[in-house]
Automatic annotation (TrEMBL):
<feature type="domain" description="N-acetyltransferase">
    <location>
        <begin position="148"/>
        <end position="292"/>
    </location>
</feature>
<protein>
    <submittedName>
        <fullName>GNAT family N-acetyltransferase</fullName>
        <ecNumber>2.3.1.-</ecNumber>
    </submittedName>
</protein>
<keyword id="KW-0808">Transferase</keyword>
<dbReference type="InterPro" id="IPR016181">
    <property type="entry name" value="Acyl_CoA_acyltransferase"/>
</dbReference>
<keyword id="KW-0012">Acyltransferase</keyword>
<dbReference type="InterPro" id="IPR000182">
    <property type="entry name" value="GNAT_dom"/>
</dbReference>
<dbReference type="Pfam" id="PF00583">
    <property type="entry name" value="Acetyltransf_1"/>
</dbReference>
<dbReference type="GO" id="GO:0016746">
    <property type="term" value="F:acyltransferase activity"/>
</dbReference>
Length: 292
């Protein structure tokens, strides 16, 4: 085996066996890979789409230095990579004849891979979103606390959760036409108490905040959603503070969340709750590529 090599596989167990220690070495920066692969492990390989997921890892002198996954039809997701490694991954995937619809990764990694993919395939690169990863420091309840109370969603809330998940996905600009996926998401979250609802005093749910399952000592807050007509009343902040407390209660060493940097309201809110920046991430879309 050469000292440096990318390896691709559709075998999730093989990927986790070989890359697991590397992924657990930085559970904050690798949170998405850890949580998505945990979802695939527990919900099945088609939890995110009909096509088989693809996984890959970079080995240098016998040690894993990078990893990626893709759950079609969604974008490629990368762990942080130096520019030369991002370029070698672009060469590897192009050589396999893969079409990549976009990339999501730590900001410099995403930019480096996008440029390498453009050079190798002629793809047009379009910036989609800038994100910031935050880690919870000292939890602070946002003031004023809205009227009402939190409660963990139960089976009777399944239809509401699925509907709000579809609305959330539309709000962030992603296409979500698959009702089965929304229902599968709701079922998975209900199985471990993974969604907290904020209720108005009359018992009406007005906002939700979710938690990923604990993996490698980290839990990520996702998603946070309030219907459009109920925003600006403090419900999302109260729900987020409650699930952040719950994540700590469930033993998380690191409680994480992502924000859209184009939304100063949410970035300010999470910092008031006690979240501190870890790293910036970026998302790019690709069009017109010729690798397939």
């Amino acid at each position: 085996m050469p000292p440096t090599a990318w390896h691709s596989t559709e075998d999730l167990d093989e990927f986790l066996t070989r890359a697991g220690d590397f992924l657990r070495s930085r559970p904050d920066l690798h949170t998405v890979v850890l949580t998505v692969t945990e979802g695939l492990r527990t919900r099945g390989l088609h939890a995110y789409g009909d096509e088989a997921p693809l996984f890959g890892l970079l080995e240098e002198d016998g040690s894993v230095r990078g990893a990626y996954f893709r759950t079609p039809p969604y974008r490629l997701y990368l762990t942080p990579l130096a520019p030369a490694r991002a370029d070698s991954l672009a060469a590897h995937l192009a050589g396999l004849g893969h079409t990549v619809p976009g990339v999501s990764a730590e900001a410099a990694t995403a930019e480096g891979f996008a440029e390498a993919w453009r050079r190798r395939t002629g793809a047009e690169v379009a910036p989609y979103q800038r994100q910031r990863l935050y880690r919870l420091d000292t939890l602070t309840q946002p003031e004023p606390v809205p009227q009402g109370r939190p409660r963990i969603a139960g089976e009777a809330d399944r239809e509401l959760l699925a509907r709000w998940f579809r609305e959330f996905v539309r709000d962030i600009g992603e296409s979500e036409n698959d009702s089965v996926r929304a229902e599968s998401w709701a079922d998975a979250r209900l199985s471990y108490g993974g969604v907290t609802l904020w209720e108005a005093p009359d018992g009406t749910p007005v906002s939700m905040a979710g938690l990923t399952p604990p993996v490698a000592g980290q839990i990520r807050v996702a998603p946070v959603y309030t219907p459009a007509g109920l925003r600006g009343r403090g419900y999302a902040g109260a729900a987020t503070a409650e699930v952040s407390r719950l994540a700590r209660e469930r033993g998380a060493d690191e409680v994480l969340l992502f924000t859209d940097l184009a939304n100063p309201t949410s970035n300010g809110l999470y910092q008031r709750i006690g979240y501190r920046p870890v790293a910036d991430f970026a998302v790019y879309d690709f069009q017109g590529q010729s690798s397939s």
